[in-house]
Amino acid sequence: MEEEEPTAIVVSCDNAWLVSWARDNRKVQVAMFNPYMKELQCLTDNGISHLNFVDYSKVNCSFDIEFVFFTSTSAFLCIFIIVVLSYKFAGQYIAPFYHIASGWLREALRVNNKHQYRYDVFVSYSSKDEHWVIEELLPSLEQRGPPFLRLCLHSRDFQLGQDIVENITDSIYASRRTLCLVSRNYLGSNWCSLEMQLATYRLQVEHRDILILVFLEMIPSRLLSSHHRLARLVKTRTYLDWPRDPEMHEAFWDRLWCKLSSNKTS
């Protein structure tokens, strides 16, 4: 009696559903006597495969939804944990770095840096010291010249409706220099801290004399040491002290005006 050759069928993943349907269907009983389902061979483009129908379906057409769900969930959890940890340990640096990078990019894209600054000086100060800015700083700098200086004040020159961090970044990069008016009020302000941080990053990138410090009052060393960024600036850069003696005010303004107006046309 001649041995019958195994039956071959042409299959693809489109009819791989037959395996799971025959195995899991509880309403219909499937019985294959000759040939048995496991003996069916698959005819592919290269001829008869050594894999039978069931093995072919498992190898080429299986789609384990549970494994995919597990993998995607695990990946999402890993990304979520990384984002949370990054925000916890580096969140205070992410936003400033983003804004300083965007500001640096805008500066780099300028066709010609000459005569492109809207302001000569961005003034970083606490709103609690605004009376000193209005009564002393503005008359002594903006009304003195030539050359006359154009100051940028957040209470006067910030764009209405724009995000405050974007306002700060735009104003710093639209100004030739940044003037920080340091006081106890200044040290206690988060916005002033951000302004100094952004101005410091710009200083580190451009390596120019663009950051000037003026101390409106005496700051104890113990208080200054807790502000590491400012403490480093004090050690590496010259700064001015607002004199208590009225007779020394004129000399103070002469020195500050000369420093701010130098290289004004560059």
UniProtKB/TrEMBL annotation:
Keywords from the UniProt entry: Glycoprotein, Immunity, Inflammatory response, Innate immunity, Leucine-rich repeat, Membrane, Receptor, Repeat, Signal, Transmembrane, Transmembrane helix
Stretches assigned to the TIR domain: 117-260
Bilayer disposition of the protein: Single-pass type I membrane protein
Entry's Gene Ontology BP terms: inflammatory response; innate immune response; toll-like receptor signaling pathway
Main location: membrane
Entries under Pfam families matching the protein: TIR (PF01582)
Subcellular location: Membrane
Gene Ontology cellular-component terms listed: plasma membrane
GO molecular function: signaling receptor activity
Transmembrane domains' residue ranges: 67-87
Family in the record: Belongs to the Toll-like receptor family.
Designated name of the protein: TIR domain-containing protein
Organism: Cirrhinus molitorella
